[in-house]
Amino acid sequence: MEYITTRLGRLKLVALLEGLSLIVLIFIAVPLKHIWGKPWLVQNVGMIHGVLFILYVLQVVQAKIEYGWSIRKTLLALLLSFVPFGTFYVTAKMLPTMVDGSKP
């Protein structure tokens, strides 16, 4: 429930989904398109990934404002969204656990 009701939870959820969609897009959909001529997965996963990317950027900006993140931390969180597995790093190393309810 914390993944929906808190800013940090929503950021973690969107980061995980965005990272997963990037991995599917790069390692499954793109090879299917270019090797076997099957563009349908790129079209569908690409749209989903685009929406998740925009949501991720919005969540990072909102977290920066709410939690007073530094420009460096904010830019790193944004830049890592362009790297496969980057948002998993953000979730695991840059964001605190939600158990204690404290702000990052």
Feature tags:
single chain, 104 residues, mainly alpha, 5 helices, disordered C terminus
Beta-strand content: under 5%
How many beta strands in the DSSP annotation? Answer: 0
- Backbone structural class: mainly alpha
Mean of pLDDT: 89
Give the helix tally: 5
Rg from alpha-carbon coordinates: 15 Å
Order of helices and strands: HHHHH
Weakly predicted, low-confidence segments: 98-102
What proportion of the residues is helical, as a percent range? over 70%
The 3D shape can be described as: elongated
The major beta sheet can be summarized as: none
Number of domains: 1
What distance lies between the first and last C-alpha atoms, to the nearest angstrom?
Answer: 19 Å
What can you tell me about this protein's structure?
With 104 residues, the chain is mostly helical. It has one domain. 77% of the residues lie in helices and 0% in strands. It has 5 helices and no strands. It has helices at 2-5, 7-36, 40-67, 71-79, 86-94. Helix 2 packs antiparallel against helix 5 (86-94). The two termini are 19 Å apart.
